[in-house]
Design a protein that fits this description.
CATH architecture of the largest domain: 3-Layer(aba) Sandwich
Radius of gyration: 23 Å
Order of helices and strands: HEHEHEEEHEHEEHHEHHHHHHHHH
Largest sheet: 6 strands, mixed
Length: 407
Amino acid sequence: MRAYVLAAILLCAGITQAMAEMRVALVIGNSSHQHVPNLPNPANDAEAIALLLKSAGFDAVETRQNLGINEMRRTVSDFSERTRDAEIAVIYYAGHGMEVGGTNYLVPVDATLRRDVDVEDETVSLDRLLQVMESTKRLRLVILDACRDNPFLKSMSRTMASRAIGRGLARVEPTTSDTLIAFAAKAGLTAADGDGSNSPFTTALLKYLVVPGLDVRLALGRVRDDVLKSTHNAQEPFVYGSLGGATVTLASLTAGERIEPAGLDVDAAAARDYEIAAKVGTREGWDAFLRKYATGFYADLARAQRAKLRDPASSGTSPDAIPNAPSQEKRIQTAILPPVGGMKELNKKSDKPRQAGDYACCIAYCRAVGCNSPSIAGGACTRYPITRANAVAGLQALGIGVPAACR
C-alpha cells in the first residue's frame, strides 16, 4: 500500500513539475515584402529556429511567415493566451525592423510607411511583444534578427521634425524582471542578412541556444562571440535585460528532450553540407544530403526545404531546358566539388560595375548549374553582381555550354 501511495506522490510531483516548466514560443519570419526589396533569409531563419525549439522539447511552437499588419497583430495578441501558464516564453522575429523616436518597430510585409506618422498604424512595436509575455513566470526572451538596413529610410516623408528615425534598433531597458532582449547587432548598428541560407546571427543561435544545461545568458554570449568571428568583428549581437542568480536553460536533459551530438565535428560537417545542398536548391541535392545525414536537426531542416520544391515531372518542365546543361547528378557534383577556374570569381562579390544584360546572364548561369528556383536565382544574382565575362569563364571551366543570354 505504501508503495502505491509513494508512486502516486511521485507521479503527481512529476506532473506538477512538467506543468511548471511549460515552454512556449512564437516564431515569425518576414521575407516577401510587397513594397520594398525582399530579404532572402528570414523565412529560412524562422523555420530553422522553430525546428530547433521543437527539438528542444518546447510544449508549443507557433511558426508564421510573411505576415501582413492585421495577421501580425492578431498572431501576437493570440500568443498571450499561451504565455499565461508558461514558465518560459520565447518570441523570435526575423525580418525588417526600425527605430523611430526611440521606439523599436517590427515591419509586416504589406507596410508602405510613406510618412513617419504611419509607423504606429503599419507596424508592431517591440513594447507590444513584451506586453503579451508579462504573465510568463520564469523567463521572457525576445530574439530580434531585425537590425538590417531600414529600406524605408530614404523614401519616408518626415512630418515631425522632432521625431528621429534611427539606424538599426534603439537601446532598450525592459521594465519587467526576468526579461532578456537579444539584438542581432548592437543598438544603432545594422546586421547582415548573410550569403548562406541563414543569417550569421541565426546560424550562431542554431549552434548554442538550446545546448542542454547551458544558461541562456552564456548561450547568448557564445552567439555573440561566434557572430563577431564569422563577420570579422563587423557585427556584434547585444543582450538587454537581466535575470536572477539561478541557471535558466532552454533545453532539458530528460530523455524526451533534444540531446546535442557528442561530437561537435558531426554538427559542423552537417552544417557545412547543408549550406552546399541549399546552394544547389534541387530535390536531388537534398536527397544527396539526406543519404549522408538521415537523422538529426539538419536532416529535419533539409526535409522541410525539400518539401517546398515541386517535382519537375509534375510541373511539366525539364530541368535540362538549356542546351548542353549537365545532368542533375553532374550539377550536384559541381556544387560539392571545390570551385575551379572561373568559378572562383563567381563565389566572390565583384567590384566591377554591372553592365546591361549581366543580370539575365546570371539567371541563365544559375539555371545552367542546376538552380531552377527563380527566387533563389534572383536573390543570388541580386547579391552578387556577376558579369557576363565571369559567368562565361565559370561555365567553360565546368564544361557547360554557354546559354544565349551570356553570349
